[in-house]
Amino acid sequence: QVQLVESGGGLVQAGGSLRLSCAASGSISSINAMGWYRQAPGKQRELVADITSGGTTNYEDSAKGRFTISRDNAKNTVTLQMNSLKPEDTAVYYCNANVRIRWRTGDYWGQGTQVTVSS
């Protein structure tokens, strides 16, 4: 019904930048919040940043000042610009969207994209 396709992960040196993108498609009536989560080996998945349909943003403390989340409501896309990357940012990053399909609302996830930051 709904697919989230991520792109933009990769390998970067500490201090570098990466841009993650996610596009939602399918039988979408509207999308509420969209966000990015990450999961490092041996750790739980955690919120990195999210953004409401009205543009209100929320960041995990370590992401503040380094990462910027944005979205294009017309295209159903969300982007995470990551600057000043650190080795501890290494993780699989997942796109999430709270999607309304007719009268039902549910959370959908992308397949994940690997981000590796070398020291």
Q: Could you characterize the architecture of this molecule?
A:
By secondary structure, the protein is mostly beta strands. The protein is built from no helices and 11 strands. It has strands at residues 2-7, 10-13, 18-26, 30-39, 46-51, 57-59, 67-72, 77-82, 91-101, 104-109, 113-118. The strands form 2 sheets. Strands 2, 4, 5, 6, 9, 10 and 11 form a 7-stranded mixed sheet that branches. The protein has a 4-stranded antiparallel sheet with strand order 1-3-8-7, with no helix packed on it. Strand 9 (91-101) and strand 10 (104-109) form a beta hairpin. The protein is elongated and about 45 Å long. It starts with a strand and ends with a strand. The mean pLDDT is 97.
Task: Give the secondary structure arrangement, pairings included.
Layout: E1 2-7, E2 10-13, E3 18-26, E4 30-39, E5 46-51, E6 57-59, E7 67-72, E8 77-82, E9 91-101, E10 104-109, E11 113-118
Parallel strand pairs: 2-11
Antiparallel strand pairs: 1-3, 3-8, 4-5, 4-9, 5-6, 7-8, 9-10, 9-11
Keywords:
4-stranded antiparallel sheet, 7-stranded mixed sheet, mainly beta
What is the residue-mean pLDDT, rounded to a whole number? 97
Number of strands: 11
What general form does the structure show? elongated
Helix proportion of residues, in percent?
under 10%
List the uncertain runs.
Answer: none
Largest beta-sheet characterization:
7 strands, mixed
Radius of gyration: 14 Å
Order of helices and strands: EEEEEEEEEEE
User: Helix/strand/pairing class, anyone?
Assistant: mainly beta
Instruction: Estimate what percentage of residues fall within beta strands.
Output: over 45%
User: How many angstroms separate the termini?
Assistant: 40 Å
